[in-house]
Amino acid sequence: MRLTELPLRQPAYVDLIDWSALTPSEGQRLREYGLCEGASVEALHHGGFLGKGPIACKVGRMTIAMRRTHAAAVTVRTGPDGVGSQDKPA
Amino acid sequence: MSALPLVALVGNPNAGKSALFNALTGARQKLGNYPGVTVERKAGRLALTDGRPVELVDLPGTYSLDPTSPDEQVTRDVILGKQDGEKRPDALVIVVDASNLDNHLRFALELIALGLPTVVALNMVDLATRDGLELDAHILSRELGVPVVSTVAVRKRGLDHLRQELDGLMNGAPRPYAGHGARDFDTVRAEARRIARAAIVRETPSRRLTAAVDRVLLHPVAGFVLLLALLFVMFQAVFSWASAPADMLEGWVTALGEAVTNTLPPGIVHDFLLQGVVGGVGAVIVFLPQILILFFFILILEATGYMARAAFIMDALMARVGLSGRAFIPLLSSFACAVPGIMATRTISDPKDRLTTILIAPLMTCSARLPVYGLIISAFIPARTVGWGIGLQGLVMFLLYVFGIVGALVAAWALRLTVTKGQSSGFLMEMPKYQWPRLQDLLIGLWQRAVIFLKRAGTIILFTNIVLWVLMSFPKAPDGVRQSEYSIAGRIAGGIHLLVEPIGFNRDISLALLPSMAAREVAVSAIATVYAIDAEDDVEALDKGLGERLQGRWSLATALAFLAWFVFAPQCISTIAVTRRETAGWKWTGFMVGYLFVLAYVAAGITYWTAIALGLG
Q1: For residue B562, which of B381, B322, B423, B382 has the smallest C-alpha distance?
Q2: B210 touching A, CB under 8 A?
Q3: Record: contact B426-A34, CB cut-off 8 A
Q4: Are residues B37 and B162 in the same domain?
Q5: pLDDT tens sequence across B101-146
Q6: ipTM beyond cut 0.85
């Protein structure tokens, strides 16, 4: 599922990132935040009155905020194999 | 440039770099600018263990040596020795957040690979412990190949150890350099992760204080209401807390004026000192408490980590007008002053987003407008409550700020549809952990703001007032004619008056408009000087406060129109200069000045005509 659809506070990990949906500088910034295939991710808050605002999520030990358009470029997987998968091959 | 050895403090944003800088240098800091760019240079002196001084420079936080914004560019250029006006650092202190090692070590590895003498400050180890992390600095040091010192900058822990390590570095014991050559991002990241895993001794489920607080503060409804409430309290405080210290300062200014009267014989020197210097500058100085209270709140919001949350909450709204939540931070800083606000837009990477933010930044009510609002509100708005302990004066002040904000949002929306049309950019931001602000950091921040304000009062405001006093004092008016009208300034104001009469402005205001371009506070001192000169020998009139005198000469409609003018007011010279520098030319600067003048004129006009229609004239 996409990161936008991930229920709040459910640990997951990043399956795939559609880098082509992001500008090069956005892609660079996300990578610098530690968002990459295999990283653990957890949606924490949806902003805006109707939940149409940005999404705050935990990536590794860091909390970052991004718009839904960016989060839609991130495919995530949940389930026991996903938890703490950073050191396992994805 | 200093001849002392140069040590650069470098690291990711939110690594606690500034707190470490403050802890190491104390209040002995110099603020400046790098030539050619508007990036602030923060430097201070640090004594090593043997007493030798070194210069410590605090570089803007960045995530890598691959810059995406102008301030990150400066960090890179300084470290590589390519920045004008700065020599290449002799040593680096890399600051990493102990609870975010994976990420921060990647940049640290990139920096270590440059081969400069380096020490790593493993900062905020107390917060890492709070989050259930236990780290081994020795393992980290072995893996990185450079000394690692555990620090808690805010409690001054580990600072002596850090000085000792710097001592060793400066004594020139070269470290074995493991030249990795250029490695790609993913390789370095994997290496950083491996080292972080090795250094973590224990990792237990944590209390996650930040997550718990965020559930409330980032709640879609509660979070928004809390943000508004916070801003409201901030503006109420600016008014109510400041009155006692402001009265005290006013007492001192009055006493100083009396001292001038008592010691100097009547004559031109006496008049100049009393009317031009004490009267003019004194009228501005009394607003120091309000300005400091405003900065106090802004510094706390920044230091606690709440500012990023405010940006998160505001993003949905900002997106509607084509901006991002990131623009909220420069805009909030613009409440203090548009100059640092406009400089803070450097963190916005999208050029059109950034330009739009610059163009609307002057609509945020800056602290220089506080003296103007303060004077008019206290003179014309009764000091009573409107229920629930809310003061009417504070409420009016709050509304003026709201008008500025709404005006800015509408302007951004209109600009985005026309002159800065383009695809709206995204919003990507790190949300730092919550932290208690530290008193010393707050005091240093307030001290620096106070010095900047007093320097302005002592230079540009004083100078403008002196010029104004000369223009208003000559030629001498014959009996029966008001000096402020007969003088050179009065005649110039007469011309301006023709333009602004339709929107209810009288001659006093016309006279104040031009010098208020130098600095907005001068509007107050200019009016003060007008009355001081007109009142020359009228001791009774001089004893009256400025507000009281205004009540006799201005109608309520005029006062309200004047406030409305200043909501959208023409920018001061400093704002125009920084806009020119940041937009690299006069085109957008001219555009900004023009559209704001039109807005101010229309807003003042509508206010005046409405007030007249309501019978407030």
Answers
A1: B381
A2: yes
A3: no
A4: yes
A5: 888 999 999 999 888 899 999 998 888 888 788 899 999 999 999 9
A6: yes
